């Protein structure tokens, strides 16, 4: 939906005749040049606004991605710590328990 109304050939012709009558043939080229420059400035401002808005949206997306990466890093660190603990437990289970049979008092019945 455009904010500027669509003008047909008839409307443009009526506007041209009206401008010729109101401004006069002498000043009409200067008026058209001024109108053209103003339209170009408005277009440039709209383009700058849109590009600024797009840049803010990109920055917001980058910030969100940075947060997600930080969360993944934290999960990775947690997983690494868990793996290290599991390895230590596994190694402790693989090491033989020292024999303490010689240190136990012998029962009289044996």
UniProtKB/TrEMBL annotation:
Compartments, record wording: Membrane
Any one GO molecular function term: protein transmembrane transporter activity
A cellular component annotation (GO) from this entry: membrane
Alphabetically ordered keywords of this record: Cell membrane, Membrane, Protein transport, Translocation, Transmembrane, Transmembrane helix, Transport
Keyword Protein transport: yes
Record-annotated membrane-spanning stretches: 6-23
Residue ranges of coiled coil: none
Stretches for region Disordered: 87-110
A Pfam family matched in the record: TatA_B_E
Membrane topology, as annotated: Single-pass membrane protein
Single GO biological process annotation from the record: protein transport by the Tat complex
Key word Membrane present: yes
Protein name per Swiss-Prot or TrEMBL: Sec-independent protein translocase protein TatB
């Amino acid at each position: 939906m455009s904010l500027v109304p669509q003008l047909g050939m008839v409307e443009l012709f009526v506007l041209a005749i009206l401008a010729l009558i109101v401004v006069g043939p002498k000043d009409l080229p200067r008026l058209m040049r001024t109108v053209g420059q103003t339209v170009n400035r408005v277009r440039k401002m709209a383009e700058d606004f849109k590009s600024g808005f797009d840049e803010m949206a990109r920055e917001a997306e980058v910030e969100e991605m940075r947060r997600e990466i930080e969360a993944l890093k934290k999960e990775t660190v947690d997983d690494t710590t868990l793996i290290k603990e599991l390895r230590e437990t596994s190694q402790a289970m693989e090491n033989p328990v020292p024999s303490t049979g010689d240190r136990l008092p012998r029962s009289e019945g044996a």
